[in-house]
Amino acid sequence: MKEKMKSGLLAALILISLVQSYFLIYRMPGADSVVNSEAGYVQAEDIGPRSSIESLIFPDKMIVHLANSRHTIFYPSSTEYTTIYDTIRKASFGQFRRLSLQSMDWNQIRNDEGVELMFGSGIPVSLLERSLKINPDSLFEGDAVNRIWLYTAPDDRTVRAFFFSASGDVVYEATDMDLRTEDISRSALLGANGVSYQYTSTGYYLPRTAITAPNVTLTLDSLTTEQMQRNLFFDPGATRNINEENGIEIYTDSKRSLQVDTRQRWMIYTDPTAPTSGTNNVSDNVLSAVDFVNQHGGWPGMYTLSMGTSSSDKNGFVFRQYYRSYPIMETDAFKFGYMRLGVERNTVSTYERSMLYLAANPTQTETTSAASSSGAASANGAAGQGNATTQLRQLPAGQQLLQMIKTQIPVGKQIVDLSPVYRPSLGNGVVVLTPVWMAKLQDGSTQFLTASASQ
Description:
This protein is of the alpha+beta class. It has helices at 2-26, 31-36, 53-56, 79-90, 106-109, 125-128, 181-191, 225-232, 282-295, 376-379, 398-408, and strands at residues 61-65, 71-74, 92-100, 114-124, 133-134, 144-153, 158-165, 170-177, 197-199, 205-207, 211-213, 215-222, 240-243, 248-252, 257-261, 266-270, 302-307, 316-323, 326-327, 338-344, 347-354, 356-358, 364-367, 393-395, 415-426, 430-441, 446-449.
């Protein structure tokens, strides 16, 4: 009898021990992070606005081709851009055939009515399908596209659509679509009153008349180091803090690290424990990057995806911030306006971003160094917003811009693109966004063009 009681008591003690162990492991505060620490990201509370891949993919410019070598360019957020893009997004494209780039006379086609959608980098077709109605096609679904050209063929008045491979030597023609010649004609009419551009012999578009954009001062808010520490580490209490003499603070849990530049409010998070096995699909990695930002800081504004362009950064993605129509381009003195993530097999290994962001209801002021030209604000999406004034800055064009290019671009360097951008500078609780021209060179580098040393 005693032996049975001893056995029963022992079994009860073992059962109680198991129950206690369960609650210690699975029910204590923070236990979920410990259990899941090797399997995925911290499932932290959102501390910023969420976004989706559909809203992060859009053309950085839209070129409307008119007759007689006339062209105009619309940028995101402008009324004309939005109207044309909405029409294209409603159309469906399918039954693709692959052609050599040299099979078409693009210089001739440039003189026909048409629209070009230009992406800043090659977008995988599998992601582009989320923004446009592209019927799945095994012929080019594994490729990436950096340009889409729609035009009306003058001989039979039919619309043709070409998707340009980012590799640069192949185009895909959609032979089944429901765009009409009237859609292209309406786009051309919208471009008739826009700023006129000429196509240069080296392959970029030069405005014939000045364009306008606001010079803007915006108030800033900031994520705190404590917020990011709690948000990024499984057990923030286990992190160590290292203060460097140059204003750098480092937080680490012996595996992951968070480096914060306290002067520029720039952070770099590193997780070297990314898996080394499994599939490494680019599109899946992009989606993982978007989910990661949703959970770890969010999207304080309008951003667009920029893919890596070389084999060394094929798993690196940049998300560039826009203010109204133009992107914000960082400077050596001030990192701002973008996020950079490195992703391996759906796991983020590096995450860089500014902890500063545009306030939700910013106080805005705009100044100008010249009077605005008629109609330019509408064409470039630069109309006033909130309590901002409508005074605008003129960006040089024509011969003045060519002279700037001649004196500021090094000899031997060739321009492949020219775009208006915002150059940020940090003030006391504010960021000043100054519109300037930026030249993209053939080697992939970029350079600001300024009319004077004071800009």
